[in-house]
## 1
Amino acid sequence: MEIQLGEIESRFAEIIWEREPVTSSELVKISADEFGWARTTTHNVIRKLVAKGLIENNKGTVTSIISKEQFYSMQSKKFVEDSFEGSLPAFIAAFTKGKKLSTDEAEAIKKMIDEAKEG
Amino acid sequence: MDITGVFLKIVNMSIAASWMIVVVILLRAACRKAPKWVPPILWGLAGLRLIVPFSLKARFSLQPSVEPVFRDMGNANMIHIGSNVKIADTPVTKAVENHTTQVVASVTQGRWSVTMILGILWLTGVVVMLGFALISYLRLKRRVAESMPLMKNVRVCDHINTPFILGIIRPMIYLPTGLDAENRAYVLSHEKAHLKRWDHVWKPLGYLLLSVYWFNPLVWAAYILLSRDIEIACDEKVIEGMALPEKKAYATALVDCSMQRRMVSACPIAFGEVSVRERVKTVLNYKKPAFWIGVVALVSCAVFGVCFLTDPGMSLSHSAGKVTSVEVADSKTGKTLTITNRKEIVRIAQYVNVMELGRKGLVLGKKSGRFAIQFQPSKGKWDSFTLESEDMLYKAPFRYTVKGGNGLFGYLERLYEKEFGRNYESMTPIGVTMMAPIANSEGVYLQFSQKGKVSGELYTGDAYTLEKSLNGVDWETVKPLKDMGSVGEAYRIKENGITQMAVNWKEQYGELEPGEYRITKQIFHQKDDKTGKGYEISAEFTITADTENVAEDIEVSLPQGYLIVPSLLDSDNEAMILPTVYQNAGGNDGPPLQWIVAGTCVRYPADFTGVTFRNGIPQLSGIPMQNHTDTKYLEVIGLERSTNQWPAIMLESTHDLYTPPQLKDLEDAGTDVEKLEKTSKYWEFWFVKEGEEQYYELTLSAKSFSKEEAIKIAKTFVIK
């Protein structure tokens, strides 16, 4: 069974592995101190990790189902499909959809870089 | 301010800025070698044009004027295109103040003008754009809640795949997780460069402008190009100090990050989403520019700013109202033409909009102010006109002479010629026409006809000028025998109706010779806002040689405003005193003229009456009765008078103005019979003398004269 975690989620999981069993309230406090997370944010992440089957939350006490060693041994160089969908709002991004370079295009440009000379 | 006003202002500003945007696009393409921080500055200046609603005047402005024809505001007004916009100093009231003339044209259909609907549409668009932004912002904020700090002002997040900066006042850089160390370093320096350039402020500001000007595709183009230019400028900033190897590394990072790679160390699609090839080329070709290039660039930007942020002076007013008429005047003949045709007015406004000023190449710019346009025809042809305005900024009047243009001038000339045949009426923009239908050597009877809506009230006074035609072309002022001075009487000119005025100039001019004459009166328009404007109006009339009318037999001293003229029924024996004082609701079937005028003078054969005398004194009897009239004998007056001043039997007569069937007909036709004057009362004086063959009757309306006044007038009655 494979579990994919993003970097943030991994770091959060670390806290749980380190301190379990730990109450959700404590997790809230720790997250707030270390990352400035709001209570809802912490609870959301806990929920996600529960849904992924990594941990369980028993009446406010959080414990891991899969241990740290088990988790990292499961990781392969697999590709994480990120949950992010949609583009950034126009006032932040440039509005034009960046075209993803094809491999050929990328090679061509890299060649251009290599051949670039000073002056 | 109302939506329509704001919207129109926005449209105007957008059009003005559009030129600037086009120029920036061209400059940008032309100056590829220029430092990359230049284009964003140019965009900034264009943005300034979109923000600031007014602009400074400069002689060297290159801003062309594109003023939309349609403007829509406030109260009524007009364009005066006259060589002499005459302000009357009428004796009526205090000096004419404040003659505001403003140019505006608008399209309105009832309460819901097209402009208003467009304004609401525009506002909706703005709300949508801003709402969109707000919602996106909130969602993004929620998304990056699950982020962790990396360093000061930098956080990493799983759920994003492009770095960005969030927040204007306390900006925070968000990086996606999964960047390898090297790429992350470059990404970070790129984002930090954004911060140093304050792009996290300019970008949202640009979006705000985009929200307001969403209807203008050029503004969209500007925003998109601005975004690109910002990215490129940032790249340049990052690699400023780098040697070639490092630049290559940065360029490689750009490429790496634009390939869609599905790894834990997934890269952002592009940190900037701009054409990678372009950016790589910029990076590779970057050379630190010489110092002087920077200076030149700055100076050029400044020059550009001045050229396009300023306006070339005069423009058309934006203030109140819709053009209701255009007045064209010919200084030579003094005739004026008022154009009230909607289509013609809009056309004229279009011409005035794009008129070229005397200064070469400049066109009328945009400005708010008040002005009047005056024509100066030379040699009888229209070839220039003067634009005079009170500059709102500098509070000084300034004038421009406009030359040439077959367009407007030719057009106006045609209109003018079409109108001025042998038309002796003259009309003013307040919808007043004056006619002089009856005249004799002692005076003229005037009729003012007013049509169309006018705000406020219209007055005229006792004063007038008389001119006599010399040879059919030239006019010579008739010199009064004595100066009458300013009389303070004001007479109200009725809206949508006819106002009469009888001018008796016997005292002032004596009896005038037959000929063609012209009388000029002043009309004062007192508007609702207590400002006023004067107009001159003329009417021509003919005095013919005196007739055999009874009026020649007698002489009577009538007060100002009354004129005795031969009866319109062309009788030698009958004369009437104008104006009419009782109303005639029946038209041709109404009461006889003699029963509604101010008075009459009739000559009768003596044996038409049954008047008897005792010792030379007339008895109170013998006056012939009239139909529909109730007569009462009063007294005999004037016994004390001398030879040709005969005594008179005085009666009081009340005439029924309508028969019962007539009343019924009127009521059926919808007239409010309750409000009608159903009778007219007259003081009648029968001047009789024993032994004479003709008697004279003078009647004076009780409405105009009290009994005493009537008697006073009767006592001036002299049989010549």
## 2
Amino acid sequence: MQKLLEKIVGGASGWIELRYQARSTKRITVRSGNLEESSSTLLAGLGVRALVDGVFGFASTTDVSEPGVLAAIAAAQSAARTSANAKRKRVKGLAEAPMATGTFTVATDDPLDAHSLDEKLALVLQLDKRIRSGAQEIASSTASYGEIQDEKIIVTTDGASAHVFDSKPELRVIAVAGRNGDQTMGMESSGVTGGWSDLLGIAAPEELADKAVQLAVDQLSAAHPAGGTSTVVLDPGLVGILCHEAIGHTVEADIVLGGAITSNKIGQIVASELVTLCDSGATEYSPYAVGTLPVDDEGVLTQRTVIIEKGTLRSFLHNRETAAHYGVAPTGNARAYVYSDDPIIRMRNTYIEPGATPFEELISAVKEGYYLRELGMSGQADSNAEFMFGVREAHRIVDGKVGELVRGVTISGNAFEVLKSVDAVGNDFAWENGAGLCGKGQAAKVDAGGPHLRCMLTIGGRQT
Amino acid sequence: MSTHNLLDRCQQALDLVRKHGADQAEVFGQTTRTITSAVEKDDLQISKSQQETRIGIRAFVGTQVGFASTNDLAKLEDAAFDAVTLAKASPGDPHNVLPEPSEVEPVDGMNDPSAESFSTADAVHQAIRLLETAKSVDSRVIVGEGDFTAEIRDRVLVNSAGAEASELGSLFTYWVLTTARDGDAVSNMALKFGATRTVAEIDVEPIARGSSADALGSLGAEKGESFKGQVLLDPYAALSLFTPLQFQLNARNVLRGMSRWKDTLGESVAMTGFSLVDDGRLPGGVATASFDREGIPHQRVPLIEAGTLRSFMHNAYTAHAFGVGNTGHAAGSAGSLPAIGPTNFTILPGETAKDDLISEMKRGLLVSRFSGNADPISGDFSGVAKAAYLIKDGKIDRAVSGTLIAGNVFEALKTLSGISRETENVFNYTFPSLCLEEISVTAE
């Protein structure tokens, strides 16, 4: 296939990007003892991007024979030509980049295909059962396993010819507890870029199940907090969500050009000097991060991008088009989820670098506040960095000690204001957001994390 | 691929999966042809064309089920084999059944034959109209994102119980997300959506103007007030807040013990003015189709009538488990197992004009969009009121920002004090504006 695409690109006129993708996925879901899903998917196809008169066009096809590929190229070029008259801002050029050649494979000793479906199913059934037998109050349980294995071939007229293999499995557990008509939920998940033993090694599946049960049950007797501004200690999960959802999207160069709050802030202080925030194609500080990718979908070798350096905004996240617009080097953030998606600017592994403060000291200095762990049911943020996240697990901090659990907590504010309020950054690190998908018109496997940190933000509670 | 060819391929897959050892089987095939022209950052963005045929195979071995799908028709046999292998590895479940075949009546107006000749150039033209109309409202408006999509979809369902259904449908959808920027002040994002099934009815201008007006309205918003009281939710906000209703009405969640309404059929769950129907045959509806993901005819299903819970949404699995009629709510694509989901989910309008609802409010908050959490199980919601306006003495006083609202959807349903007679179509939802009581409003 790579030879065919190289041959076609060699004979093409104008700039062309061909991306073949074969994807195999498996999903197993068990709810309250019943198998809800056991499914497999085999997808294959080709996405073509053409640049004609400074305008992109895109077409996708499942016909990957030579005539099929040529027809898709013609369709993409026609789509570009049709838009050319009305397009105001032309692509002035594509920034020079280290284009990838060769083969790139996920390093694992234990590939997913070496493990049978029976083994994967047995694990999911066992987790579901463990949740149900975990406490009397458990009303329902869910356990699921998913895996995505990708093979991509990216060939462009300007030098990329990369063959990329990827493997991303994940586990998820949900416990619902009930008492007197009241219901609460606990959930945990883990995901990796890697193989079967990497997934099981990063978090013991039984511990995920036990934690979900504990949280669901404990919340039944938890009170709702009052709303207001408070000192909080965020765990690596919420730090990651803040980095990705509330900051990261506002520095994606396409969002910046659409009028994000960051557009004129490069070089300005946007956070506490304790904060260095990055997005990387590699898995920094801790292994197996799910957003890991060696080559982006424009065929550019990825790198570690420092977005905020000691409080100062240093860089946006770019594809080759926006990098040329800003006169900077591409950061390797162009990604497409499946063959029928065109590459757009997406994050990879987004995090705050660890600092110097031990976790105990983050907590012990708080007279009154909250210790907050992981994203709850949902989260949203705007291009002005205003965010609102549900919190999965919230404890009061009283006189320097983590105390009682409270429920129904949301946090909100402006993410940059929150980062300015950071007064201590933990010396630990974890990736915590590898399960699930990020959506931006198309999906992406990303990860986010960081150390624990202390800051101020608004707690949403109930007005009484 | 024509409907005829798709039907042949689905029949072929059905033969293959039975050859590999399935006792019963179902094959759902979809051919989707789409043309999309996108706008971004005040400019035309990329135009795309796509064609894909996807086949989903559900294999039954006794009461065991496995599912596989592919878009590579050369791999139909691999997919059939996978489906049977997965079934054999899986524990059985007595409710894994195929539905009895039933007569499917076509829905009028599903397909506009002129959609066949709708070109990339036509889509680009509509995208330009969307962009230019939004920008023409005010120079401070920035069109962040949006697109115009033309889609023609063939659906075919066959199963070993003798079901055979097919349908061709055209659909044009368009949406736009704008912000307004004045110096350093950036408004909230404002989203509007529109759709039609015919070329002649395509009209992108109202949504473009509406989105711009919403963005401009929230510009210059200042800190609001904290109180506990009335909140008037516009349809987009109501949609975000009322998603827990779908969760509670899903019969699968009832079966799982996750629905608080599991023992309340025939009982009051909302104030008497509140009625909710799901109508899979709604003329022109985005989710309209003559049959569901399992080949069962769609129908108009009253879910809540005058405040009383009348029905849950069922597919073949839950109908069998509860021993009740199948409501035709099997949902999903050829890429996934049949799940349960709404079609055209509609809160019936009230009799009061929205302006009159406002004029009856002494102090309240009008919310255009909600960004937050609505817990599907507890119904607790909490989040930021976007494009929100303080109402005082029956009049809109001013735009406010950074205002949190919190309460409980199920409590709110029982104390609902107003439903507007105006409704808006948002995706496959038709919602009026709703006036909620006793909501916590917190100004940051």
## 3
Amino acid sequence: MTIDEVVAQLRDGMTIGIGGWGPRRKPMALVRAILRSDLTDLTIVSYGGADVGLLVRAGKVRKLVYAFVSLDTVPLEPNFQRARQGKEVAEVVELDEGMFQTGLRAAAQRLPFLPMRAGLGSDVLVNNPDIRTVTSPYADADGVHEDLVAVPALHLDVALVHLNRADKHGNATYLGPDPYFDDLFCMAADRAYVSVEQVIDTAGLTVDTPVQRLLLSRMMVSGVVETPNGAHFTTCTPDYERDEKFQKAYVAAASGSDEEWTAFEQRFLAGDEDAYQAAVQAFAQEEEK
Amino acid sequence: MSTISRAEVCAAAIADAFRDDGEIFASPMGMLPMLGVRLAKLTSNPDLVISDSESLFLAGVPPLFAKGDVVEGWIPFPKVFDVVAHGKRHVMMGATQVDRHGNQNISAIGDFSQPTRQLLGVRGAPGNTVNNRTSYWVPKHSPRVFVEQVDIVSGVGPRNAKAAGAGASKYNDIHRVVTNLAVLDVKGAGDTVRLLSVHPGVTVDEVREATGFALEVDADVPETRSPTTEELTLIREVIDPRTLRDREVKPVSPEATS
């Protein structure tokens, strides 16, 4: 598939899960394609980084489900902060990180909810009054029937994830330190699209790579698209690390005046993915001078 | 040994918070907690399991932010949440706000629907605090941090946990709050924050003034212990030879301590 063919599968109002973690291994080429599209009123479900920042700044998001939004080396995401403080996202669901995983797991298992402790006593339950508790039918050692959070399934229309390698069928490996929750995102979704650094032959997936790194099976994946440097400016270890200089420039523009943000958009986000990658290269060359 | 810095006192106090934990996963968030945990592993609690803050359990104790050590395990995020629920973990988190009942906030300042300042989000604080031992590190003890009531309860204190029932309270264990001025816990009357010790050069009144609620204070508040010569050597020569610690807790000038 091509990037544009993936985005052509999306519709206004859809619930879209974005894999990765904060500023790590995000399907940024697909996110950038959403920015260029006419899509609107999206529900975005993400352990958030600049994917969330860019989408809320572009006004694409009606509802946001997250546990945090952070760029790691820059703890607070400026576009996300701006959107929250300006009440630009109509609906927000802020969950505990583990609740978020449990919600995906419930959806992946086609369950309405799964129980857990996380959330009890916190304002997550105050700010999300739709999230209910459930009483254990079993007594604990003290004879108490515990009340636990019934974490609702986080069902996704579409999941977008970025991995290092895949074959054309959708079998995909991650080569970095952490799978994050990309398999759960795919299983929680009706359709999953995976972008990768490189599409290779099936046999090549396990030539130099332990089979345990095959995170996604083709039966979980609806489409594969090759997007070299497609996670930029997030990490895609070991293919590349986070582009900290570019992230700094992004943060400066997002924290600056409207003019500064427009200039950033014009320079990097106005064209297609090839234009973006060319602009990033030019930026890197300038930084080296 | 030259004069002991405030950061070094904090590091030893953080190490003490992990002293009695046994063989569990110590998860420090931030630089001083990382220093304190590694100090504990080299002294009072060699059984601690530590990570590179990314996805590896480290068998050795490398300097802060150094790479390359013997790896003894794999702890990617999905497994972190397994350990949280399992309970063999002690996390020391940061805190933008801590209130009288030991609730913590890292989510946002102001009203949730439209915060005046959006912060990180609750992250793992709700789950941490009802599953495994949790401590907090506050590098700048002030009335802006220590407030009567946090704006958004992210980390759950013992009173909130009890109110939510056994499911929340049975594993709720807010152990220590270590600041640049003092060591506290949440075992005061009615599950409130209590002063355990003040760092050398700090008075009880200073801590009271820097706290935005009525702090439980015993008649006799001891001084936080100073690090031993062995600990100072480990801090200065092994774990933090670049003195990164002073960036987080500025050395206190002699006039200020008099």
## 4
Amino acid sequence: MSKTSRTSITMPTEAKKNTVIEIRAIAQHDMETGFRYTEAGKLVPRDIIHFFTCRYNNVEVFKAEFHPGTGANPLIIFTTIATESGTLQFEWQGDGGYEAVNQSQITVT
Amino acid sequence: MKALSVFTFLLAILCSATSFAARQSSYELMTPENQAMQDDPNLNPAQFWVMDGQSLWHEKAGKGNISCASCHGESKSAMRGVAVQFPKMVQGKLQTLEGQINQCRVTKQGASQLAYESKELLALTVFVASQSKGLLIAVQETSANKASLLKGRQWFNTRMGQLNLSCAQCHEERAGLKLGGSFIPQGHPTAYPIYRLEWQGLGSLQRRLRNCMSGVRAQQFEYGSPEMAQLELFLMWRAQGMPLESPGVRP
């Protein structure tokens, strides 16, 4: 059983070669820490995203590891250098088979 | 006696005039970072609920097997201007926006009510509310809602809980001063449902009001109760003319 959720990417669609571009990636996720209890005293199992990766034309350019201290709906803002036109693929992986994928195109001139 | 009542009347006008002139959304009290999070749809986490609400809008439910869109239309702006009028009297009953959505589900769709603070109800509410973003809150006193509005005003001014505080003592008399490290806002409900960072999620005005009631160690009003609706009505009336910011972000 695989779970997924909404994600959103904000980045320029066009850039000059060798300039720095800013990328914002946000995923909808509760990021349940695994340290909380219900009113009945039962432990709420951990349910978090563990990894976020960004591949630029299949080359990994950014990777992040999330922990229970990371807040809900994690937003990551990072930069990379616009080297060539193509596709940036974003992947989130987490507990319970959670997986989300998003893509964005960029034209480099 | 008469002179006294004239004096109180003048005082009331003066007070309301000054407080109206200086009305301020708690948006103004936030850090630039949090303001940016609310203003930029790409940063505002509440947008996920808006999208969820949009999907629910088209989902058929209940015995009637109809969706919200079946009656109200497919458009993302079909409900523009609706949220700024709530709570309002609908068929003799004071309804909040959440209450009206549930009412529609039961009577029109033949479906079960959605629980307060459930993701579904919040999503539908925020989808409807966000369509009125930027419009001015338009809750006015009418002959129909007069009694409820008066009740709401009384709740606002009634001391409650072990700390024996009323809403007004903090949010009118001490608004702008500090409680702990934070500014006390004037308590205008201009951005609900809000994504509150402390909650790590979306929540309704009623959840926020219950927070305050628990803060003064009072018995909280129930979700969906007439008391809540009356208090909501008074607060929205008090904020009339202020622009709706939904979906808001608050610390």
